[in-house]
Amino acid sequence: xxxLNTVLGDASGGRWQVVVDYANVLTxxxxxxxxxxxxxxxxxxxxxxxxxxxKTIRNSGHYDLFATFAARKLIKQxxxxxxxxxxxxxxALMKRASLGKITVVGVSHSNNVKRMAKADAFxxxxxxxxxxxxxxxxxxxxxFHIPNMFxxxxxxxxxxxxxxxPIKIGALGRFDPVKGFHTLLQAADLxxxxxxxxxxxxxxxxxxxxxxxxxxxxxxxxxxxEFVGWISDVNAFFQSVDLVCIPALSDAFxxxxxxxxxxxxxxxxxxxxxxLDMFEEHVSALYFEKGNHEKLADTLxxxxxxxxxxxxxxxKAFQRTLDEYNVDxxxxxxxxxxxxxxxxxxxxxxxx
Length: 352
Prior knowledge:
Blueprint: E1 2-7, H1 13-28, E2 32-38, E3 53-57, H2 65-78, E4 82-85, H3 88-98, E5 104-107, E6 121-124, H4 127-138, E7 143-145, E8 167-172, H5 181-193, E9 198-203, H6 209-218, E10 225-229, H7 234-239, E11 243-246, H8 256-262, E12 267-270, H9 273-278, E13 286-288, H10 293-305, H11 307-324, H12 327-351
Parallel strand pairs: 1-2, 1-4, 2-3, 4-5, 5-6, 6-7, 8-9, 8-11, 9-10, 11-12, 12-13
Helix pairs in contact: 2-3, 5-6, 5-10
């Protein structure tokens, strides 16, 4: 099958990684794939898929006529059998450009799915996204549940963490308010007031960096929090800490919890919707009420006082990630979805 794998809106961080994952997996499944991205999102340093052609289109929004014409020309030249669209802008442009003649499959990497429901079919990475798309008009269209996959080392085995003294807490992501790092630093202030010793390694960059640094200064946390910048080797980062905290206020189904778990690192998660799909509370992860720094401080305090519990949780999380979020199962789920969509398309053609 010839497949356009498109992302014409924001494609930073985890979303771009998943777009690349789709391109690589589809190619390994012997499909011919063309990755179509926004021209301002691909640079010399951008992670690129293996053996996949890339085409860039300039666009300025959902209703960009020039981008629509460019996409229509590309579709006419390339003659795809299917279009996978990883954002609402891609859905809008590809729906108009294909004139309704090619199935457009929407993959949402955000809980804000208001514009996603216009796709012809859906690949949902979480149960919350599935319910929201149904609520907003997608009910009755083909839909498939395909969570993201982890990116840990091949042939990995569980390796229990030997804790540092003081304990090292890791956090990783884009410095944006939605990621909730301010909640973590506020919780750290409370932990310090309670007399606990700890260190925090904060990986990433972004618009909120100065605010986070000010929070450290206000709480006198400068000697406890290290800003380590962008992380090129996330596996090494997770293996260098004793605990990973992911305090996001909203998360569709992020990669960070999976990649931390497959590196045998215990995880503390906010109750963001995507997190709740991943692991069971007090079975494979610890949870706290999203945005509530007092609850996070309580949860971290519990973690610091129960290293034996952390070991049990991390072992369960590792096994669940290995069993449920591996590339083979991802490939199998994607193949099932594509086979179903091809069958549905064939039936529609026969009916016409």
